[in-house]
From TrEMBL:
Substrate binds at residues 19, 23, 45-48, 65-66, 98. PANTHER family: METHYLGLYOXAL SYNTHASE. SUPFAM superfamilies: Methylglyoxal synthase-like. Residues 1-152 form the MGS-like domain. This is Methylglyoxal synthase. Its EC number is 4.2.3.3. PROSITE patterns: METHYLGLYOXAL_SYNTH, MGS.
């Protein structure tokens, strides 16, 4: 796959998602890192986003709840280059009904090479990284080239 680059601006679009057993963990992480998060545009799946908004006062755009399509909405935004960082505390110990959507979200985050944290240790590393406060270039698939190759 030929690559091109995408500039992630200093002010990021950050998606926040947590499965039910990990919602307290993500909520606590958001409270601890509220001042960092306040510098960015936040969205989240329905329940996670609403809980964070209510409990931290941060402005979080809540999409649909995960099992109702929220993971897919965030995945689509990633594919469109509208999400810069994904923080997704997914549950490795409990099955969820929408496992295909979870996989799809994680897959698209990998395809489009955005920084992803799936646990608090990595989320801490991300928030302390210069990419959290500065603009950064990431490599992404060259979609125009990809399409041109497929249609010639
Ligand atoms: O299920 C989720 C992610 O897969 C999260 O959805 P909620 O935030 O609505 O609980």
């Amino acid at each position: 796959m030929k690559l091109t680059t995408r500039l992630l601006k200093a002010r990021k679009n950050i998606a926040l998602v947590a499965h039910d057993h990990l919602k307290d963990s993500l909520l606590n992480w958001c409270k601890t890192n509220k001042t960092h998060l306040a510098n960015h545009d936040l969205c989240g799946t329905g329940t996670t986003g609403t809980l964070i908004k209510n409990e931290t006062g941060l402005n979080v755009q809540a999409m649909l709840s995960g099992p109702m399509g929220g993971d897919q909405q965030i995945g689509a935004l990633i594919a469109e280059g509208k999400i810069d960082i994904l923080i997704f505390f997914w549950d490795p110990l409990n099955a969820v009904p929408h496992d295909p959507d979870v996989k799809a979200l994680l897959r698209l985050a990998t395809v489009w090479n955005i920084p992803v944290a799936t646990n608090p240790a990595t989320a801490n590393a991300l928030v302390q990284s210069s990419l959290f406060t500065n603009e950064v270039l990431i490599d992404i698939p060259d979609y125009q080239q990809y399409l041109a190759d497929r249609v010639k």
